[in-house]
Task: structure prediction
Amino acid sequence: MNWTPLDDSVCQLGESPFWHPDEQALYWLDIVARTVLRTRGDGGAMRIERWPLPSEPGCMAPARSGGLVLALRDGIYRAREWGGALQLLVRAEHDTRTMRFNDGKCDVLGRFWAGTINEAKDRANAALFCLDARGGRSPVFTPMANEATTANGLAFSIDARTLYWADTASHAVRAWAWDAGANTLSGERVFTRFDAKPAGWTPESGLPYDGRPDGATVSADGHYWVAMFEGAQVLRFAPSGEPVEALSLPAQCPTMPCFGGADLRTLFVTTAAKGRSDAERARLPHSGSVLSTRVATAGLPVNFFED
Result:
């Protein structure tokens, strides 16, 4: 693959990218640096703006009426404009000393979903929640799934009948039958499972390891694309769960893919530099950068938060 790094985009832990169609801009997060980033056009060149936040942002989505909805460590917040005041919508019920929000996005009906991560990684007590604030109603915050350690891989099928959700630590992506209107999940199954990391594995060990599932998206043909952390690749699966394609990356730790550009045929992938060895970063100098490549299959436009 011919990957292009975005200038000045290196993050400790890049995550939650989306393409804003009205602004023709890419947004993403650096969780560790507590920052929202976005690209802006300037005389034909692209520059990056940064917005510091008071705590770690796990995920975000654009809002139909402007601004963003963001999941920070201690709750879900609404910002009406770039750099604007943060309005608390829902306070987190978890212990914020050891748990925070992680991967999430909006569904096609404008509800915001966010999962959590147990940073101690000592038990599978992370969960997936859905926030409904449509029509100006008081936000309703509902637990939808649980028994995870690190919530990731959230995506929705194009017919709104399947919800995908990964637990990175267990190396598995689960799927549910989803009734989008009633917002109910049923018929949980394993969509795909990956081999655990071999004992003694390092990127230089030569031991085979595909990585573990991180962030994900769905393309216009209904395929599920998932970033494989420590696997240096994005994997593509048909709705049946059959593997279709592996896209190698010049970074060991991709974190989440998204489609963007005017035709939604540019694949952007955020990556991580945090905790990587000096040797790895010398070998893979684009670790932490946003990487992009052109693909034959278009993606789907981002879903907006409705309030």
Q: What stands out?
A: The mean pLDDT is 96. The two ends are 40 Å apart (CA to CA). The first strand starts at residue 4 and ends at 5.
